[in-house]
Amino acid sequence: MSAWIPLVRDVMRREVYLVDGNDPVSRAIGIMREHNAPLVIVMDKLENGRILGAITERMIMRATYNPDTMKARTVAARIPKISSSASVAEAARLMLENHVLALPVEEDGRIIGVITVEDVVRAVGDEFFSKIRVEDVMSKDLVSIDPKDTIGQAIALMREYGISRLPVVDGGKLVGVITIHDIIVKVIQPRQRATRGEYVGEKLRTLSHQVKDIMTADVIVARPDEPLSAAIRRMFEADVSCLVVVHDGRPVGILTRTDILAPIAALAEKERRAISVQLSFKVNNLSESDKERVMEIVERFLRRLGESIGVGYLMLHFKEHKEKHGETHMIHCRAKLNTDKAHVVGIGEGWTPALAARVALDIIERKLLVMKENMQKYPYAEELLSRIASEI
């Protein structure tokens, strides 16, 4: 590992917040709200130290809006722990692969702290991100909602696509953004406190209210061509979880705290292999053999291309479609190859993660072949194509 990459112990937060597995989810919500905690660790019994998992804001959406009666153990999800001696690049890789924004930090078998996306990004520094453009890492698969749609519809979209925020678009123009945090703070928590005597006589919002009633209208945005370092500073200074990427007033993508982890995670394996491979799954009933078959296809892809694709990372993101064959959902795969020689995206679908990955990687390989043929055919094409590659 390169000497300049800090260790987790150097940048982690020492505050650790715990709840018992039998405590109500509302206790975890209260802790996150009071302390601005990125996650709350759920213990089997607080005194024996066995970890059941952790709760984040996104996980709270599973609580069916009865946080006073649902136990923390039923909502908590298992997330990986990271050693205090690991690098922040390894922390970024684990966060990216497990769709979390924070990790418990372990030392000598004890949880001694937490490391968040913000900690990792600040540790790497502005200079690293100044060489990357927003469009290189932003999510282009944009899911939006109309301001007149209901809050319930917004929740349904978030659950379907496994996301925690939605740009609000009216007539093609960006008019706001709604997040899971908005729903918890403006809908769930007020109704919870009303049962204890607060908000008496006030009209509380329900899931049938419109998105425009709780959305944030003053949206902080980014440009696709600006340095990632500038967008990150804006994100952290405003303390927001995402920036909507806008071109000519129209949303073209979204930049989340998770998106900015990919180039950092690539550092974790840069010394061991030219291309760092990162897999991200939002697929139910995923088996270890599914992951192994995907990696076999990825390894064959990398062996075929060899050193011609340069140094960087290959990210494959899998999610389920509504379309089903029997009980099997169609799988969507978005593969992004980002190296010092090419920036290429391929989209594939199949009835298994392996089939979807094969289609996506075949598309990337065809695009790379076209680029190579054009460089051989036309003089002075390399500079032109390297610029075009970032737009494919």
Could you walk me through the main structural features you see in this protein, from its secondary elements to its overall organization?
- The structure is a single chain.
- The protein has 392 residues and is an alpha/beta fold.
- 36% of the residues lie in helices and 25% in strands.
- It is built from 15 helices and 15 strands.
- The chain has helices spanning 8-11, 25-35, 57-60, 72-75, 88-98, 117-124, 126-129, 134-137, 151-161, 180-194, 228-238, 262-265, 288-305, 353-377, 381-389, and strands at residues 18-20, 40-43, 51-55, 82-83, 102-107, 110-116, 165-170, 173-179, 221-222, 242-247, 250-256, 275-282, 312-325, 328-339, 343-350.
- The strands form 5 sheets. It has a 4-stranded mixed sheet.
- Helix 5 (88-98) runs antiparallel to helix 6 (117-124), helix 13 runs parallel beside helix 14 and helix 14 (353-377) runs antiparallel to helix 15 (381-389).
